[in-house]
Amino acid sequence: MRKTILLGLLLGAAGAAAQGNMPLSSFEGQVVYQVMPDRFFDGNAANDAGVNKGDPRAWHGGDLAGLTAKLPYIQKLGATAVWLTPIYQQQAQNSFDTAPYHGYWPADFRKVDPYFGTLNDFLAFIGATQKGGMRVVLDQVINHYGYLAPAVKEHPTWFNGKAECDASRQKDIDCPLAGLPDLNQGNPQVRDLLLGNAGFWRDQGVSAFRYDAIKNVDGPFLGDLLAGDRAAGIWTLGEWYNADTGTVAEWQRRGFDSLFLFSLQTAMKGSIMAGQGLDGVAAVLSRQGELPRPGEVALFLDNHDVPRFAQGSLFEDVGQARTKYGLRALMTLRGVPVIWQGTEIAMRGGADPDNRRDMRFEDKWTPQEKGVFEVAQNAIAVRQASPALSRGALTLLKTPPGLADRLLIFTREQEGQRVLVVWHGGKTRQSYSVRLGSLGLSSGDLPVIQSLFAGQNAKIKVSSGYLHLSLPPEDAAAFKLN
Ligand SMILES: [Ca+2]
Ligand SMILES: [Ca+2]
User: Fold this and answer.
1) If you measure from the C-alpha of residue 217 to the centroid of ligand 2, how many angstroms do you get, rounded to a whole number?
2) C-alpha dihedral sign at 12, 16, 18, 24
3) Where is the signal peptide (predicted)?
4) How far is the centre of ligand 1, averaged over its atoms, from the C-alpha of 383 (Å)?
């Protein structure tokens, strides 16, 4: 026990020193593309034993060789970083009639599962990303092993059992998540194992970690883990399911560079996909001042744990149109946009595993899917070409009374460049005339105005102290002001 405390103090001191000397890692300006390798692309049929593409709960054969082969596709979309769900060696058997294709049932944290390939395949992928100037975010599991991992029987003292769970006052931390064998990070062997895992993968050339289920992990251990990452220049992204602005702010203060802002995803899906007012989005954005580092927060329309964004609409064509709106809207926000594979073509799917259908590439697309991709590609390019959109401060403007459900207006500003952003929830094309003074703008603030997104007809004019907007239905527009 004493040894543990001393080691903790030492690491804490090293962490503090590192924080003092090292600039904080940043992903501001990046666009992340999220991949679940088993469901992305099969680049090696030799590791496909037992694959059954007809079963959504089975292995589907996608692998690291396939991911490397399709890296040009991700680059063509315009993403600058790739987040892979875990690639570790998984438990050999199924649980609940489900194979560990998703990567969250690890058996060995320092081996690559043969279905995904080898460590050399991973290094080849890293090499290809580095050649393309891209970054890699690797998913790290720190809360549990897979249900049937050999370690559970080999090292019973590593895990919180029923007694520990019953006695705990922090049930989220010391009780099993979905029944998974829960690691006791207070055990020095477990601690060293997990800190060592982080070091092992850092050494393979990753830029960032996405830490799974941080709500369920011991806080002091997380502090030590983050100190090590920070000292090594690794960006850390925590997953706290359903986190709101307050939770993200708290964990940024406690050392994470970023968390996923689930509350914004909920509000965006509600307003863009389900016809709720845009005031719900404004309410989330109005809290950004609470965030220590708003530019680092991870923003998303959907991911592998929630139903697909496009699934929020009954009809496929409506889902596609609203996904275009969602993708444009996402690219106007302050933070780090994360696009889950297939959202760029408005793939559909309900709850897990239906939201993890195999990725489909260009040769299989309908003209409508191609249309969604082109909007995604353009929106990303517009964001990347604009310092204001990619890194600028966001200032929410006051929407005139009675319009807050239909209009969301804000500016993004960086290096003297300014962009005016308008989201329009109206169901038909509509014109609005808003007094500049009521938005907190003066006419002198709006010298030259240029619409930024291609393929949409959004217009803006300033005259006699009014901002006149002519907006397509259900879409987000961005206008460069100078
Ligand atoms: Ca394969
Ligand atoms: Ca736990």
Assistant:
1) 5
2) positive
3) 1-18
4) 35
The pTM for the full model equals 0.95
Longest dimension (CA), the chain: 77
| DSSP-assigned letters across all residues of 228-289 | HHHHTT-EEEE--TT--HHHHHHHHHTT-SEEB-HHHHHHHIIIIIT---THHHHHHHTTGG
β-pair partners for 182: 144
**Cα 259 to ligand 2 centre (Å):** 18
Ligand nearest 175 Cα, by number? 2
Distance 185 CA to ligand 2 centre (A): 8
Residue 188 and residue 7 in contact, taking contact as beta carbons nearer than 8 Å: yes
Q: How far apart are CA 24 and CA 444, in angstroms?
A: 37
Find out whether 145 and 181 touch, Cβ atoms under 8 Å: yes
Chunk the chain into consecutive blocks of 10 residues (it has 482) and report each block's average pLDDT, rounded to whole numbers. Answer: 39 43 90 98 98 98 98 98 98 98 98 98 98 98 98 98 95 96 97 98 97 96 96 97 97 97 98 96 98 98 98 96 98 98 98 98 98 98 98 95 94 94 98 92 81 96 92 98 82
Instruction: Give the Å distance between the CA of 89 and the centre of ligand 1.
Output: 15
Distance (Å) from CA 51 to ligand 2 centroid:
31
Peptide bond into 353 cis (omega under 30): yes
> What domains does the chain contain, in order, with CATH numbers?
2-387 (3.20.20.80), 393-480 (2.60.40.1180)
